[in-house]
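Q: I'm writing a short explainer about Vacuolar protein sorting-associated protein 41 homolog for a general audience and would like to include a description of its predicted shape. Could you first generate the structure from this sequence?
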Amino acid sequence: MAEAEEQENGSLEESTDESEEEESEEEPKLKYERLSNGVTEILQKDAASCMTVHDKFLALGTHYGKVYLLDVQGNITQKFDISPVKINQISLDESGEHMGVCSEDGKVQVFGLYSGEEFHETFDCPIKIIAVHPHFVRSSCKQFVTGGKKLLLFERSWMSRWKSSVLHEGEGNIRSVKWRGHLIAWANNMGVKIFDITSKQRITNVPRDDISLRPDMYPCSLCWKDSVTLIIGWGPSVKICSVKERHASEMRDLPSRYVEIVSQFETEFYISGLAPLCDQLVVLSYVKEVSEKTEREYCARPRLDIIQPLSETCEEISSDALTVRGFQENECRDYHLEYSEGESLFYIVSPRDVVVAKERDQDDHIDWLLEKKKYEEALMAAEISQKNIKRHKILDIGLAYINHLVEKGEYDIAARKCQKILGKNAALWEYEVYKFKEIGQLKAISPYLPRGDPVLKPLIYEMILHEFLESDYEGFATLIREWPGDLYNNSVIVQAVRDHLKKDSQNRTLLKTLAELYTYDKNYGNALEIYLTLRHKDVFQLIHKHNLFSSIKDKIVLLMDFDSEKAVDMLLDNEDKISIKKVVEELEDRPELQHVYLHKLFKRDHHKGQRYHEKQISLYAEFDRPNLLPFLRDSIHCPLEKALEICQQRNFVEETVYLLSRMGNSRSALKMIMEELHDVDKAIDFAKEQDDGELWEDLILYSIDKPPFITGLLNNIGTHVDPILLIHRIKEGMEIPNLRDSLVKILQDYNLQILLREGCKKILVADSLSLLKKMHRTQMKGILVDEEDICESCLSPILPSDAAKPFSVVVFHCRHMFHKECLPMTSMSSPVQFCNICSAKHRGPGSAILEMKK
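A: Of course. Here's the predicted structure. Afterward I'll give you a sentence or two in plain language.
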């Protein structure tokens, strides 16, 4: 329960606080303000006795018999002198055009605020209550009730005369009345009654619970929630009654309606007023407390509670203690709660004060969040309701949030929030940066500074870079990598880095960062030199990106030392910028690097570096022998004599064998294989490659006295040399390893050759027959002869102009056509005719295939 704190400034009666609350995490539901202007002036000289509320204006009655019409700000718009004594009640119809007033001296007045109709009557007893018909403006509803010792209903007859009738009497003074639609509810000393004005029947009697309370000191509070729901508050008790229609079968002599109490519960304090708020209740309570010092009861501040009614109890939603003027002297009957249904405004009326309570809006919610230092929630609420808030700006809340985080020492969070809150406002960004500088937290805000839209002054970025340069080289390097080079004055930062390098010249982080700064400044030469010194992987990217090939002509060795593979690829890809000759010259003192370059060049193109092939022989022999033989095989430009000399000097047998064979000295090569390598398989392979009978003869002669060699020959020469030649030369009694297996293999190879030949013959015969059939089918097809064709001998049309005459035509397979009479006669020895043009012999494509006669 939130309690408003009482502030004492002079006397409590002169306090200007509307409603104050103790520190609580629970947000209040209502906000309060004192109705001032004309009301303040009235209550300085008089005291409020009653008030009624219309959507358009207020009507305030006083102890001195005055009635004031006020606007919603409390300004006086009209004044009526009704009586010299206390006004007990004021009633307005729904239109706000007619008002009823009753006073302690028995006067009753009902009059039109904008018309001349009036009712004046003075009774012989005080009139406590008055209620005009809600639709009094209609001619059929000119009715009102008054209550003193009895409840009277006044109606205007057709002659414009007023007649009265007694609705109830004999149970003490009528102290409260509320009229809604066709139902009138009133309270007397015994309880609450409801009267149906349509059926002229009293439909219920709700008895008073606590009869020990004086009804004049603790009056009943009535409130219609809607046209069928009445809320009764009396003493500490609350009852919610629902008016229902009685079923026709239950009527008999009973009223057509009855009342059911749907909820009943007790509160802690005495009820002075009730008002509905959606499905909840607003309750004004009179509070008495016992002093701890004197142990005597005293009047405490009244409370305004919002409760949720349940069937037999209630749930408190909020509770506020109100500091109204003169609350120490007030009694329960001195407080009234009036409300405006349209705007959810609640008026707490006391003799010396009128306080207005209203539901809190989004601005009030944000105020409360800011007061509780819940800035993030306030910012979120403002963003969600930015169209509805009037007193707050999102930016102001955001700035307050940043300041709050800084005060708490949460610098990183504060800096991160700057991105969202400051947005594209460059001036605010710069202001915040200077604030972070004052507290020594430039590093915290550096990751979040804008880098594009907006762009801050260069001085801001330079200030942060200097801060990092003094204390954090890695952070400085990170910012240089991440920030575009045009955000700050590059030359200023370069000079600052160079000054630091004077103290620590080998610092790799600073050197790398300086190279990046040189790159931003397009000073690529200096950047390249630093990258090469650091052996940094980005050096090749820098060269390619900025076309720095002219700058690396004298740095080729450094590049090769750093990464020979990447360097060679780059140099070969850009031969037009750095010639092969230049690279070879630069690498003259580093033959191992020279070999890497020339080897890659040879792999790409066997002819580009032909002038260096002689040099490459020595380089391969020295640094890469496994690739020497492939080089000798693929190169057609290397001098064979020079290569043979080098290979013989280094005793490279395989390479020497290849060179000897290439130079035509196959016998020497074979001899070297046999004598140096002792490898019969390689010798046989060599003999197969050369396919020279004399070479095979030399191989057999060399192997004839060596059984392992004979075995190798028997296993491999079956398809190249007749094995009989070798077998006949084997000396009798010589033991040859695996002779049986070798002979079996020779026989198997022979059988395989026979099978292959037979298979090939079958395939050849089948193909020949298939082709012959195809040719025969082709030759048997007809050939088109038309008027455009001519005789190849006489050159006249092949077909006669007169189709009736007989004719004879000969067409050859070569598509040449002749008149039969234009062909020479065939001899008896050779009856077959041939095309004179093609002169085909025997039976070829020029042989006759068709003779046409008619």
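A: For your explainer, you could say: The first strand starts at residue 30 and ends at 34.
Q: Perfect, that's easy to follow.
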